[in-house]
Sequence to fold (349 residues):
Amino acid sequence: MTAATVQDHLIGLVDTRLGAFLDQRRAEARDPSFARLWELLSLACRDGKRIRPLLVLTVATGAGTRMQGELLPAAVAVGAAIELLHTGFLIHDDIMDRDLRRRGRPTVAATLTDMARGDGDPDADHTGASAAMLAGDLALTGAYRLLAEAGADTPRLVDIVDEALRRTAEGQLRDISASAASRPQEEDLLELARLKTGIYSFEAPIACGAVLAGLGPTATAELARGARELGGAFQVVDDLLGTMGDPGRTGKSTSTDLRRRKHTVLTACAAARDARWPAVWEDLTGQDPDAAETRAREIIVSSGARDHALELSASLHASARSHFTHPSIPDHLAQALVALTDTLEARTR
Fold:
């Protein structure tokens, strides 16, 4: 099989296991409203990029070179667990950010709010958000249930996922507690991105894969370093696309981050290099946010903030590749991880 065929096969196995788990939970629900919650959770799991489970299975199977015996079903269960964990985080994140759409559809909270409003609930917003919180909770606890299928490696895997969950919660708390008037430095923003996204999206999946594969300490350490760099690069690219990208290609709004005055590498660099930035930053919540957005993007380009972000992305991706190609990493796995790194970096072009 080609590398692409192997990837498709592995992702297909994860989707099948995840679908079976959610279908079983929905079938066990005695109350129709509870069954509906599982249906919405199933819908929320669809159409993701599946980067996280792909990382688990790529490392665990040596890029498809080791798929015999009990390894493959264990890795599939762990990949499904990480994807379900990701879905739970997204549901909660949408509530915290008051987002109404995700992956081109209404969010779980928005859907449940509309249902409550249709039922005549006078407090539909609160009811919908509360029910969505429960759906997110079910996703997080379901992830642990799937981890239990990993056999003898389960305790070590639970430790990895538990650490990732706690650090993600820490990052989210820092984020919602931050003031828009603050002036965070680039290193602070990269650390926040690591806490919120990088650990559970890259470091934990790769660490789980290394445990399942039985890799040695040197290879595991190099993979961890590469995962950390790749996670940082991923966030820098996300910030670029969220401010300067093409919504038609990315499906991401280029207004949300600016209008919420989200601190990013781009805004930190613009603030440090252009004296006009503080006034534009304030205007983003003023009478004419469209004009303020336009000026903000002009400054991001003219100050060199966009070029700086691209250079930082390239540097982090290159560093990730250097760790993934360490002599301790098996060749097939190194090639697969470099190819994935290339694909993720291509999002900037």
In short: DSSP finds 16 helices and two strands in the chain. Residues 1-153 form a domain with the Farnesyl Diphosphate Synthase fold (CATH 1.10.600.10).
